[in-house]
Amino acid sequence: MFKIIKWLVLAIVILGLAATAVIYGVLSISLPALDGNGRSNHVSQAVKISRDQLGQAVISAENRLDAAYGLGFAHGQDRFFQMDLLRRNAAGELSELFGKAALGLDKKMRFHQLRKRSAAIVEQLPQADQALLTSYAAGVNEGLAQVGFSSFEYLLTGAEKKPWRSEDSLLVIYSMYLDLQTATFERDQALIQIADIYGPEMVSFLTQPSQYQAALDGSTLAPYNLTIPEFPKQTLQALLRIDANQERGSNNWAVTGQLTTTGAGMLSDDMHLSMAVPVIWYRAQLNYAMSGKVSQVTGVSLPGAPAIVVGTNNNIAWGFTNGYLDTADWVALTDNSKTWQEVEQIALPDGSIEEYKLTLSEYGPVREINGKPYALSWVGHQPYAVDMDLLKLEQATTVDDALLIASEVGIPVQNLMVVDSQGNAGWKNMGAIPGRIKPSELAVQENDYSTLWQHNEQQRPEVKNPVDGRLWTGNSRVVSALDDQRFGNGGYALGARSSQIRDRLYEKQHFNEANFNQLQHDNQARFLQPWHSLLLQQLNRNSSANQQYIKELDNWQGCACATSIGYTLVRRYRDEVINSVFTAMQANLQAQGGSLNYVKRDLEPAIWQLIEQQPDSWLNPQFADWDAQLTDSFSQVVSNLSKEFGSNLKGWQWGTVNELVIEHPFAQQIPQLSKLLNMPTAPGFGDSYMPAVQGRSFGASQRFIAQPGHLENAIMAIPGGQSGHPLSPFYRAGFDDYVAAKPTPLLPQTLMHEITILPANEL
């Protein structure tokens, strides 16, 4: 019997090893070649695609068209499936890959008809831009063809790889619109619903300006000075969780040469986005000639697009944070409004078609809000939303050049922060801004709709070389109080991050790259200090029963540090108080298909007024008084943490609760592949409302620091590797240094691989 068991175990082991060998064998044949020679009809002269130990692609070409081909070739080799998901997501075509499970998301995206818009815009682009997109697409397709065998994602889905087209690059840019600006019109919808249910006074109360304001000119918005609105009589109901939508944003700041040893301006930029495998950005350096001059541009590209998005040409360095200007209006329609229907056809894997009927109007697509029709007028639907003018930054030599370009660029509106080697620093909103001059967070009547929507705003504020030499943005209001009336609030961040960055910049008189790197990792919990005091006050009402929690709060370290249990308690307490106070409102909104999720970031001033004044109408009816309600919120914290992480408080450390988990899209569906596909987990460091932004799968998607003209110490840290192939040596390259806050060099290091593509007709 023992021998039989022994042989069975041995057979299972052998079968397991054989299965592993088969998996690795199938994966290995889809690895791209990193060395060799090839020919193409799509290059005019030799193009070299080299890679260093991080896998950074170094493209060497004689002109910009061939450089676009080379970048496309590298993207096609390393990231095609990611690019495919980006274009399909924006176009509403994921169902063709994943079946009916993706229909809901596809219909949500078809509401915007971005495939049609992309195809139309390509036809309107200048010939030079069309040629660039054509060259890039050719590179993508030939880089993909070089791989020869389908990647595992296509083998698992059984899907067909479709060639890359010029319009697909515009869809990739539209994917950023959806990521960065959806919150703007969803927030407006929630405010319309709140006004409809509770009146406009409630909207004013909930969206009042906070104490955390960090506009560059130091201006503040008038504080809310009205009484707290009465809340309608509440009924008993279950506590609802209000999850704030992830704040697609970023930090950037800059100093002029008067504050650096070199005399050059210095820039910091870290863009906050969802994190997955592969990471969204792709390291690249483009080397090419233009107008008789050699250009070298180093930074990160977005796979699917032929540009360096954030980086430096050694004359200037630039970075972005999401602008959150008001770029959308809902237009209230009537029975007399002209509307019509179009049918979008969504393909499924079996070849069948799902039809989605879409109602349109002259203002935009139509959605019902609280049972009434509204049309969405959004800058993303305008012809000027997308273009190739971002590439002009590659040739800019001064801050003035970059600021002049800003008004023409077709991207989601961003806070452009730019410095140059001469010591200048500047800020300006770059991207598409509608020309209408009266933005509104609530519904617009048809009679008030402006035809200026069809025009991109050219007149926009800017700041260059402030007297104190410091500039900063963090997704909160940057413009003056007066300009705020013109450009509107599209879902600004609260301002706590921006304020903390500003204050840190004024703590020093000289800066280098190490100082900026330290500031990028600043996780001091300034914003939560009042909540820490409130929680201690509540727990001290029964100090003997709460002794262990009080001890952790006394030792909370005042930061989102990995070992802090007290930080976890304070952070969760704030969320539970908001859940408890606003549960009734959330329930009413959910009954109308809405949510407070997109408004939660606005609620800080309102929740503190409610806590301090304790109006009876806002008291949850299951509690006798506000103290009981606040005490119960902490009981909810303890209960939820115990369920999630066990009753041992050591398991409640912030590093565990906010553990960094960066996963491949297929890992959740196929857990057996998780170790192969995912990045290693890491203790959580940072949180919202502080410079070091980090959630479980969200945070700084790159960290960039540079002084143009002095790039030897420039930094570009990314939470993942270059390649999307799990067997590639570059799959996780750079991740460990990112987690450890080590300053990964921006510039390519020793080149290890090289592919040369020659013109097909060259002897």
From TrEMBL:
It comes from the Bacteria. InterPro entries: Ntn_hydrolases_N, Pen/GL7ACA/AHL_acylase, Penicillin_amidase_A-knob, Penicillin_amidase_dom1, Penicillin_amidase_N_B-knob, S45. The keyword Hydrolase applies. Pfam families: Penicil_amidase (PF01804). Gene3D superfamilies: 1.10.1400.10, 2.30.120.10, Glutamine Phosphoribosylpyrophosphate, subunit 1, domain 1, Penicillin Amidohydrolase, domain 1. The keyword Amino-acid biosynthesis does not apply. SUPFAM superfamilies: N-terminal nucleophile aminohydrolases (Ntn hydrolases). Keywords: Hydrolase, Zymogen. Heterodimer of an alpha subunit and a beta subunit processed from the same precursor. Belongs to the peptidase S45 family. This is Penicillin acylase family protein. It comes from Pseudoalteromonas neustonica. The lineage of its organism: Bacteria, Pseudomonadati, Pseudomonadota, Gammaproteobacteria, Alteromonadales.
